Amino acid sequence: MSDDAQTTAQQRLTECEHRLTELRAETEALLKELGELQHSGDTAPAQAGQQASKQAQEQTQKQATAAPRATGQAIIAGASNSATSPTQLYATQTNSAALYLVGDVRGLTSVGQQNDGVLGYSGAQSGVLGMSNSGTGVRAVSQSGTAFSASSTGNTGAVVSGNGAGLVADNNGQYGGFGVIALGQVKGTGLYASGERAAIRLGQSPYAGAPTTGSHDVGELVLDSNANLYLCRKAGTPGSWARLN
Questions:
Q1: What are phi and psi of 236, to 5 degrees?
Q2: 35-44, 96-105, 203-212: which has the highest mean pLDDT?
Q3: Which of 36, 89, 102, 152 could in theory staple to 98 by disulfide, Cβ–Cβ 3.0 to 4.6 A?
Q4: Burial class of 39 by CB neighbour count within 10 A (0 to 12, 13 to 18, 19+)
C-alpha cells in the first residue's frame, strides 16, 4: 500500500472512531432519557428550563388533562388524550402523509408498554424511512435487549451502504464480545467479502510477534506490526500461535 493510500485509510479510521465516540455519547443520553420516561410514566417529556409558579403549574395541569375520549369524539390539542379504541388516519391524496408532526425538540415520542413502540408497514415501499440532513437517520437504543433486528422471509434482512464505511460495528461491552457475528446457519456461508481493491483488510497490532498476554481462543488471527500473520491454534493465556507467512 502506498504512503498516500495508507494515510487516507488512517484518516478514515480516525473519522470513524470520532463518530463512534459521538454516537456513544448520544446513546447514553437517550438511554438516560428513556429510563426517566419509564420511571415517571410520562410519554411527553417536559421542556427543560421552564420555570413557573405553583398556581400556574396547577392551571396548566388542569388545561392539559383531558378525560378519556369515547369512540368518535374529537382529539383535544394541547392535552393528554386517552381512548378505548385505536385512532386511524387515512389520506387519499397522492404523495401525502396521513399525519405530519413538527416539534422544536422532537417530532414524535412513541412508547409501547407491552409491545412495539413503533410499527411501520408498507405494501410496496419502506415500512419505516428515517432521514437526517446532518445527524443519524435512524438510531436504535436498547437497555437490555437487541437494539436493532432486521429479518426477511424471502430476501435480504438488511442492506447497508455508505460513501465512507458501509457499516461501522462497535462492541463496547465486556472483554470477549464481537463487533460483528455472521452465521451461515445450516448450509450457508458465515461471511462473504469482496472488493476491487481487496476482499478484506486486517488491522495491525502495535506489537511484533504473536500475543504474549491475555486470553485467546482458537481461530483468532493477529497481524503484527511487521505484517506477519499469526493464527491461534490452542486456546489459553496467551494460547498457542502459529505464524502463517
A1: 160, -165
A2: 203-212
A3: 89
A4: exposed
